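User: Just a sanity check before I run the rest of the batch. Below are the structure tokens for the first item. I only need the designed sequence back.
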């Protein structure tokens, strides 16, 4: 295993260079092939990954647990409410102590600052399993899935329609790193964080791609190779559900949107889906959907990240 990323954290896409992300994607491709051949790869024997979660999860939790198990290690799922954290122990002390017990931490929480604090104080790699600002593991699986279909991300036209949330931000960032043309179409007031967009746009320009934001869904979808959406009401925003459904309705992925895209366009969604809200049943389960490959690729990319960062 290359040593370049050993000990490194992955708190946001921008932590890693294009070459480092490419290393992870190439390894994920290899690991996917080896798994299909039923080849055992005990790259991390005896290592333990602790998963500290403040929110529910299906894909991130299960794929990470399976990933470390298939690499020869073990997972320790720890709801944050069960730790002394819930009674006021600091993130710093938790990070210092867990660094003596386990080989890596995967954190799902609300504030990006919490993940950043773990990364600052832990002496082991810290991986972001979703915050309000970022979902880098999802972005890596998205990039793998797009590469599988188009052979590259460079020059691929990606249209994200919906809420300018964490998934949108990480997609903009990874698309920018690889020179894709990414546009986020959101209703007014739902735009992705302007600071992250500006950084991603500068990165995209350096790599021959582009990043832009619009309030016009049809113009974003026109000619797109990838149509991407996410749930309209993310965890923690349930009290805004009615307003969000009303505001985001024109940004739903449906047959009309698909007909405006490139004839070979694919449909992506990070899941969980609310069928009939942000995406129609026809698109989610249709022949142009890559959603289930995208979900599977969470396993291969997370395995690659762990294999590369855990000592
Ligand atoms: N896409 C994703 O992160 O799914 P989970 O919330 O189930 O982990």
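Assistant: Here's the designed sequence for the first item:
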């Amino acid at each position: 295993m290359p040593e370049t990323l050993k000990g490194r954290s992955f708190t946001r896409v921008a932590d890693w260079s294009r070459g480092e992300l490419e290393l992870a994607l190439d390894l994920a491709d290899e690991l996917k092939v080896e798994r299909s051949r039923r080849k055992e790869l005990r790259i991390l024997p005896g290592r333990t990954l602790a998963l500290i979660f403040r929110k529910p999860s299906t894909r991130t939790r299960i794929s990470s647990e399976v990933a470390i198990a298939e690499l020869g290690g073990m997972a320790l799922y720890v709801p944050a409410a069960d730790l002394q954290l819930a009674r006021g122990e600091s993130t710093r002390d938790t990070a210092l102590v867990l660094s003596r017990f386990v080989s890596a931490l995967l954190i799902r929480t609300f504030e990006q600052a919490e993940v950043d604090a773990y990364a600052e104080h832990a002496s082991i790699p810290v991986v972001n399993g979703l915050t309000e600002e970022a979902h880098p593991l999802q972005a890596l699986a998205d990039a793998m899935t797009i590469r599988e279909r188009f052979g590259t991300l460079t020059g691929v036209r990606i249209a994200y329609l919906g809420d300018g949330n964490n998934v949108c931000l990480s997609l903009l960032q990874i698309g920018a790193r690889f020179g894709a043309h990414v546009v986020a179409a959101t209703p007014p007031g739902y735009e992705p964080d302007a600071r992250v967009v500006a950084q991603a746009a500068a990165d995209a320009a350096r790599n021959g791609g582009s990043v832009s934001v619009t309030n016009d869904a049809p113009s974003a979808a026109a000619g797109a190779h990838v149509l991407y959406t996410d749930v309209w009401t993310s965890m923690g925003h349930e009290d805004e559900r009615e307003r969000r459904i009303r505001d985001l309705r024109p940004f739903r992925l449906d047959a009309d949107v698909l007909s405006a895209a490139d004839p070979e366009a694919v449909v992506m969604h990070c899941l969980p889906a609310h069928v009939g809200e942000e995406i129609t049943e026809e698109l989610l389960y249709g022949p142009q959907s890559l959603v289930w490959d995208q979900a599977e690729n969470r396993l291969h990319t997370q395995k690659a990240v762990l294999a590369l960062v855990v000592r």
